[in-house]
Amino acid sequence: MYLPRKIYPQLKKHLGVRQITVITGMRRTGKTTLLRQLLKDIPSQNKLYIDLERLDNRELFSQKNYDNILRELKNRGLNTKKKIYLAIDEIQLLPEISSVLKYLYDSFDIKFLVTGSSSYYLKNLFSESLSGRKKIFELYPLDFGEYLDFQKVFYNKNEKWENKKFNPIEYERLKYYYEQYIEFGGFPEVTLADNIQQKRDLLNDIISSYVNIDIKTLADFKNEKNIYTLMKMLSKRIGTRLDYSKLARLSGISRPTIMNYIDFFEKSYLIKRLSVFSKNPDREIVKAQKIYFCDSGLAGILADLDSG
């Protein structure tokens, strides 16, 4: 079942642009759902969905002879004499695919729609060979408005934020949903889960997948215990100034390693660092940043793990 996301109109508009449409974001935020919906909304029948979690598909795009790749795409029903729409899911699983996309993009009339789970990969390795050929759209967990949409709760979407006044009746009506949103976050599956235990199980599974799949796939970090330790420490420090030396001292992890981990956490959408607001740019650089989690549900589960 497809439930609309705020980013979807931008993605749909980009179907008419030659550039590669790249959807990136943390695991389980709904990238595959959006990709399939985009493909469904394309009136052409000359289209194909490819999931790189399947080994045969990864083998297809690992071939050195790109003409063989094209031949296989023809065997799957695509007509290279007409415009092709090719959706490729989880491209971070195949780092060398960027050269394949470049060749096919430059040689044929193919509109690529691709997803990947980390800007760490997409904005570095992926960007070098496809500069100017792509546009990246970042997908985050649901915001509160989207959360209400998923819960089928009406709210006024047209009123501008700056014109809103506090309404105690509206506050009481939406208070329960806001508290649920803060506690369990905005991952679509978690939002739609039937009960609290299912929500907690899903959040634990997302954390486990992040550590055991995303980190192992995208980074050369070997110490799983240190990763968990730092994630749990950060979940207790939301909104506080980021002190790398203190984190190193308390965790027993070296300061350079702490900085590398946090940099990766941000580039893979687990956390966000915010600089102090100042009219003086030099002061913004000097002052310590504050840290926030991109999903409050994950932060809550990690904090519970730390206390339990």
Task: Explain what the structure shows.
This protein is an alpha/beta fold and 308 residues long. It has three domains: 8-139, P-loop containing nucleotide triphosphate hydrolases (Rossmann fold), CATH 3.40.50; 144-192, no CATH class; 208-307, Winged helix-like DNA-binding domain superfamily/Winged helix DNA-binding domain (Arc Repressor Mutant, subunit A). 51% of the residues lie in helices and 12% in strands. The protein is built from 16 helices and seven strands. It has helices at residues 8-13, 31-41, 55-61, 66-75, 97-107, 119-122, 125-129, 144-150, 168-184, 188-192, 196-218, 224-235, 244-251, 255-267, 281-286, 296-307; strands at residues 20-25, 47-51, 84-89, 110-116, 134-139, 271-274, 290-293. The strands form two sheets. Strands 2-3-4-1-5 form a five-stranded parallel beta sheet, sandwiched between helices. The longest helix has 23 residues, at 196-218. The chain is globular, with a radius of gyration of 21 Å. The chain starts with 7 loop residues before the first helix and ends with a helix. The model has no long low-confidence stretch (mean pLDDT 89).
